[in-house]
Specification:
The N and C termini lie close together (10 Å). By secondary structure, the chain is of the alpha+beta class. It is globular. The relative contact order is 0.23. A hairpin with a 5-residue loop joins strand 1 and strand 2. The protein is built from three helices and seven strands; from the N terminus they run αββββαββαβ. It has one domain: Electron Transport, Fmn-binding Protein, Chain A (Pnp Oxidase, Chain A). It has a seven-stranded antiparallel β-sheet.
C-alpha cells in the first residue's frame, strides 16, 4: 500500500466534494461526486454510499477506483488510485454510518467503500503532470 504525504492529506481535508472514477468490468467509465469521504489513515480512505448506483455496481464487479483531489483550499492536485472493498455490515460499516449521521442524520449511509491506496499521481499542469509521486 501507499502512504499519503502531509501535503496530500492537507489537500484531502480542504475539499468538500470529490469526483470518484470507476469502470464496469467491461470498461464503461463512470464519474460521480462524493461528499462522504473520510481519511482513515495514511493508506485508507472511506467513502459512504448514500445514493450510489453505477458507482456501487462498478466497484462490485471491478474493485478499482480513482479519486480526484483538487479544488479551493487544496495546495496541489492529485489523482489517488485505490483497490476498493465494499462493506454493508460490521464494525467499520457501523462506524462510517455514525460518522455520516453525526453531520447529516437523514442520509441513508447504505454501504462503505474502503479505498486502499495503491498509487498517487500529480495533476497540476506543467512538466510533472501525470507523474507518479507515490
Amino acid at each position: 500500500m501507499t502512504a499519503l504525504t502531509p501535503e496530500i492529506k492537507t489537500a484531502l481535508e480542504a475539499i468538500k466534494v470529490f469526483p470518484l472514477a470507476t469502470a464496469s468490468k467491461s470498461g464503461i467509465p463512470n464519474v460521480a461526486p462524493m461528499a462522504s469521504v473520510f481519511l482513515v489513515d495514511d493508506e485508507t480512505i472511506w467513502i459512504g454510499d448514500n445514493f450510489m448506483q453505477k458507482t456501487l455496481a462498478n466497484v462490485l464487479e471491478n474493485p478499482k477506483a480513482a479519486l480526484y483531489v483538487y479544488g479551493a483550499g487544496a495546495k496541489g492536485c492529485y489523482q489517488i488510485k485505490a483497490d476498493v472493498t465494499v462493506k454493508t455490515s460490521g464494525e467499520e460499516h457501523a462506524k462510517m454510518k455514525a460518522m455520516i449521521h453525526e453531520k447529516k442524520p437523514n442520509l441513508p449511509a447504505k454501504s462503505l467503500l474502503i479505498l486502499k491506496i495503491t498509487e498517487v499521481y500529480e495533476c497540476m499542469p506543467g512538466a510533472e503532470a501525470g507523474k507518479r509521486i507515490l
